[in-house]
Amino acid sequence: MLSASVRSMLQHAVSDQAAPKLAFASQQEAQLWLDDMSQRLATRIPDAAYRFDLLSTVHYEATRAGLDPHLVLGLIEVESGFRKYAISKSGARGYMQVMPFWTKTIGTGDQDLFHLRTNLRYGCTILRYYLDMEKGDLFRALGRYNGSLGKPEYPNMVKAAWHNHWSRPQQNSSRHTG
């Protein structure tokens, strides 16, 4: 059960409906990231415009929640295989496999978890909540997110997808990219 203060904080986090904006130092940096991630995602989502929308929203919502967008892409790969209408055996929905009880607990109860932005807003907010709860311990936060706390399989799968498919290696760049 969530305390009233935690519930209020989470309600505020999912209620903001500001238009997505990419958080990059420059438009060029944003375009390079989108192009790179888009190429990686092309076999799973052939529609370039939809891929751009998905990646832009992932980047915005992850950054907004203080998460690495590459981690969120790894989580989505494991949770839904980038299938918008995925439903788990337990009833979790959408890209980030958000359980419907969350919309009643911290939302208005009528949000559509198959809506791209809604799903990513809830998923990123919930993962951030669990990371804070676990004082930054990603392994435990991922276990909580998946309902498998203490079991290594799920956190290890997300970390592997994140590092093997979505992390940005230093490529042929003459400038330091961080």
What can be said about this structure in brief?
This protein is mainly alpha-helical and 178 residues long.
Shape: globular
Mean pLDDT: 88
The secondary-structure element order is HHHHHHHH
Number of β-strand runs: 0
User: What structural class do you assign from the helix and strand content?
Assistant: mainly alpha
Biggest sheet features: none
Strand percentage: under 5%
Distance from first to last alpha carbon: 40 Å
Count of helical stretches: 8
Rg computed from alpha carbons, rounded to a whole number of angstroms: 16 Å
Q: Uncertain runs with pLDDT below 50, 5 residues or more?
A: 170-178
Helix percent band: 55-70%
Structure overview:
This protein starts with a helix and ends in a 12-residue tail after the last helix. It has helices spanning 4-15, 27-41, 48-64, 69-80, 101-106, 116-133, 138-146, 153-166. The protein is mainly α. The longest helix has 18 residues, at 116-133. It has 8 helices and no strands.
